[in-house]
Design goal:
Blueprint: H1 2-16, H2 25-34, H3 37-54, H4 56-59, H5 92-128, H6 130-144, H7 148-159, H8 163-189, H9 193-200, H10 205-241, H11 253-260, H12 268-295
Helix pairs in contact: 3-5, 3-12, 5-6, 5-8, 5-10, 6-8, 7-8, 8-10, 9-10, 10-11, 10-12, 11-12
Amino acid sequence: MTALIASPTLASAAEAAPPTRVRSYWQSVGYRLRYDYVTLAFAAIIVLIVLCAVFAPWIAPKDPYATSMALRLKPIGFRDFVLGTDELGRDVLSRVIHGGRMSLLMGTVPVLFATLIGGALGVLAGFIGGRLNMAIMRTMDVFYAFPSILLAVAVSGAMGGGMVNGMVALTLVFIPPLCRIAETATTQVRELDFVEAARASGGSTPSIIGTHILGNVLGPIFVYASGLVSVSILIASGLSFLGLGVEPPHPDWGLMLSTLRQSIYINPLVCAVPGVMIFITSLSFNMVSDGLRQAMDVRL
């Protein structure tokens, strides 16, 4: 009798209770990123650097190519030169702002092409398997025999200097690790029940890959690729420093380090400016990549 009397009360309480909100996977990722203030701070730095690079012609106070031998190696804060001048009397601030264009292009474009090529090869190798997997992955192992920087220097040196050849060299360097990440993730997903059900229902290989595989492997590929941007910026700066990347007189942070290194004992603060920009940009991409990895980890 007590249960019969209490049941209407329990039913009304259950009806009055607000429904529990269930977040989707991407909503959960966005929710975690929204409260990750460290990742958001470094993402804001990246956005600021990108905006400065995009609007460099309007932001830069002076012509980055204008030289003046009378103004060589002036210190920081000299007259209207906020960051001083370089070995040819050019405004360092203007060249740093314009140099962000070259450095960001050399950092992002090779990673983008390597993600498309390496990701496609890895997904095919992991899903189809067999001899195709053996052929693709053994070819990637050949590239793994060489350190990344050494391989980039060798390829860029063989093709000749220049920004385009440097991008090609960096793309070849980043294809093997991205291919391995995609192959490993695809191999894990292809054995799951929903993929087997799609096969049993007569789904074609392209439809299964596009519908069931890519949605589960793009996360790890994207997180790893975002971390490679900082590595690409560092290697690209090294190529420019060695004369195998961006050619003078175009502004580039690595090239600026190379041309200013002989003046380090005369004006060390001015020489350190492009190095500081490389460090800040690489650190920002690394921290954002780490924040994305934590936000997209379903175990958290």
